[in-house]
Backbone:
């Protein structure tokens, strides 16, 4: 039976985290434990970070709040002691910066190959992430807004546990490819383009979905939860007979565009499987959504869905 997965909070049994229990440590420590376990599921680990991780803990110079956030991360690093991922060493370096040039200098001097973005970076967030993307630095964070801005993976508190939030597009651009076991646990988000100029956003949607002019300019990102609430008709993807007989399982991630009338008109697979993709495409052709109105006018929307197929 196939199902669309809603955001999932990582199980304390699976990852051994139960923040708040006696002796379990702080939330920052729990985030770092989850981070280290998540990195071990990067299939590109050996090729992209062969010498191990050198992670810059990036904060905004001169900001007390950002400095405090960085101090909390470094305190958790010290509490956890020596760390390894897949047998490779992990080193953490505090990096307070006022601009991208200071980050570039720190990356060169400290030989950083990853970043952990602290809170309080403000308008510097997107330029820092853009620099990381161009240099294939893996970007991690404890802030949802950073993942939506293009960080690869975030670790958020959720009911005393840790929730993994993954941006597959950003992770791929930063040299990471996470195993399907992490994809099944993670909440999947896509980069929100709200911080970009309208012409840049048009170019992005034009390239991905072939949208032009006003339609591209008006298109809005919505979370899978919001999109699911708008759905009014459509079939679920069928489990292919050949896959059922062979007991094949798969996770597929799809970015889709819903036109102003509520029809799915464009589909892009971020993670696919040749046996299951046709079934998803066929089902999406039947999906219908209530229009999303902005100033009483319907506009197009786009989102990222995750489909899981598991044999019974």
Residues:
């Amino acid at each position: 039976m196939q199902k669309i997965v809603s955001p999932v909070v990582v199980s304390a049994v699976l990852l051994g985290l139960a923040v708040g229990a006696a002796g379990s440590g702080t939330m920052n420590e729990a985030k770092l434990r989850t981070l280290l376990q998540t990195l071990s599921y990067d299939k590109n680990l050996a090729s992209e970070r062969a010498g191990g991780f050198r992670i810059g803990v990036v904060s905004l110079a001169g900001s007390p709040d950002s400095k405090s956030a960085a101090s909390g991360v470094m305190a958790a690093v010290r509490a956890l002691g020596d760390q390894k991922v897949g047998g490779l060493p992990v080193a953490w370096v505090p990096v307070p910066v006022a601009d991208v040039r200071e980050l570039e200098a720190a990356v060169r001097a400290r030989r950083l190959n990853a970043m952990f973005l602290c809170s309080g970076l403000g308008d510097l967030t997107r330029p820092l992430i853009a620099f990381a993307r161009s240099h294939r630095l893996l970007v991690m964070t404890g802030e949802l807004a950073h993942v939506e801005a293009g960080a690869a993976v975030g670790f958020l508190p959720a009911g005393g546990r840790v929730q993994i939030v993954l941006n597959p597009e950003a992770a791929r651009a930063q040299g990471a490819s996470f195993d399907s076991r992490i994809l099944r646990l993670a909440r999947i988000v896509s980069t929100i383009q709200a911080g970009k100029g309208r012409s840049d956003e048009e170019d992005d949607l034009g390239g991905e979905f072939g949208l032009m002019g006003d339609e591209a300019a008006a298109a809005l990102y919505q979370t899978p939860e919001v999109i699911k609430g708008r759905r009014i008709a459509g079939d679920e993807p069928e489990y292919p007979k050949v896959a059922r007989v062979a007991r094949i399982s798969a996770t597929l991630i799809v970015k889709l565009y819903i036109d102003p009338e509520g029809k799915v008109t464009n589909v892009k697979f971020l993670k696919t499987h040749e046996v299951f993709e046709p079934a998803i495409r066929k089902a999406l052709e039947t999906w219908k959504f209530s229009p999303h109105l902005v100033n009483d006018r319907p506009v197009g929307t786009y989102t990222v869905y995750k489909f899981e197929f598991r044999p019974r």
